[in-house]
Amino acid sequence: MSDAVTPAASPPPPPTSAVVACYFDGKTSRRHQVRLRVDGDAAVIAGDVERSCPLAQLRVSERSVHAVRKVSYPDGAYLEVADRAGFAALLDATGHRDGVVVRLQQSWRGALTAAAATVAVLVLGYLFVLPPAASLLAHALPLAVERRLGDGVLDLLDQHVFAPSALPPARRERLSARFERLLPPYPGTPPHHIVFRKSRVGPNAFSLPSGDIVMTDEMVRLMPDDDALMGVLAHELGHLHERHLTRRIIEGSAVAASATLLLGDVSSVIAALPPLLLDLKYSRDAEREADDYAIAMLRHNGIAPEHLADVFVVLGAGADTLPAYLSSHPASPERIAHIRAAAR
Ligand SMILES: [Zn+2]
Predict the structure, then answer these.
(1) Interval between CA 326 and ligand 1 midpoint (Å)
(2) How much is the pLDDT for 276?
(3) Pseudo-torsion of CA 59, 60, 61, 67, nearest 10°?
(4) Which residues of 163-183 are buried (b: 16+ CB within 10 A; e: fewer)?
(5) Which residue of 87, 187, 230, 239 has the lowest C-beta tally within 10 Å?
(6) What does the pLDDT look like over 232-291, one tens digit per residue?
(7) CA nearest neighbour of 189 among 246, 235, 238
């Protein structure tokens, strides 16, 4: 990249002191020793070769730390200037300004600023552009595709984490039937199916893109009453309704793809940061959305939303058990307060 020499504004500057340069005619490799100075609007060389050329017709190579500066004539001839300081003074006298990019590249501070700006753009993209984009994609995704996303996940969990539920079948059926009788708060309820499992990881509940809402025996036993369990199930239906897991999967692949495309393996450390930030923010927003869905659903069916607050109070109080549910569903006082405020 090169940029044009811009002539100085009037009044014309006085002749500058000359700098040593090598002149090449562009046709042979022969080197001519010359001295370059600026006289008015012209660059004048003297020595082995004498030549005068309007500044406006010359191109000056961009400044870099190691390379000599190159000044090109329109006919292909060029000068090489090794005296960088002298040449910089000469350019200053002509009013020449390096392009913004060149000046930024010139300083480490500028380079760091540029890198920080790139990271900032990426982080902002991850935080504010990607989630809505993933949300749009997730909602546009045909259910059949979404089901395939969740296919096999439950099988995998059954092999490694879960055992068949030990709850009495009548108890399971009563819970499922009661939840199915509840009216959803909004139209467009996704197809769903409650699945009970005995867990090695304690009280837990989650929904899969396939529409399976998994509830562990330990969660059923821990909750004080069935209203609280309806709250847990409504919260999971909220995740399904908002397609949170599908969004996470799309975001996960988009993050991986853009990290490879944009940053390469050099900046993999930096690339790992935005998804982390995203996760923190995203899961908090997703939890709030699912809580709000559950609150609306409980109210819609005449169940006090306080029962959903109970879920987190009970989970948070259980010091003897270490509920896995809490790692994905922090029972923060803020969260409990939000549910209770909505209940009023
Ligand atoms: Zn949740």
Answers:
(1) 10
(2) 40
(3) 140
(4) eebebeeeebeebbeebeebe
(5) 187
(6) 999 999 999 988 877 776 666 665 555 444 444 434 434 444 344 334 344 778 889 999
(7) 238
Mean pLDDT confidence for 118-138: 63
State which amino acid sits at residue 206: F
Q: How far away, in angstroms, is 325 Cα from ligand 1 center? A: 9
Reading the block at residue 200, the tokens are: 């090695």
How far does the centroid of ligand 1 lie from the alpha carbon of residue 290, in Å? 6
- Going from the Cα of 284 to the center of ligand 1, the distance in angstroms, rounded, reads 9
Partners of 216 in the β-ladder: 197
How far is residue 109's CA from residue 177's CA, in Å, rounded to a whole number?
Answer: 65
CB atoms closer than 10 angstroms to residue 52: 11
169 C-alpha to center of ligand 1: Å?
26
Q: What's the 3-state SS for 2-49?
A: EEECCCCCCCCCCCCCCEEEEEECCCCCCCEEEEEEEECCEEEEEECC
Helix (H) or strand (E) holding 123: helix 108-124
- Rounded to 5 degrees, what are φ and ψ at 59? -115, 135
The token duo for 342 is: 């909505």
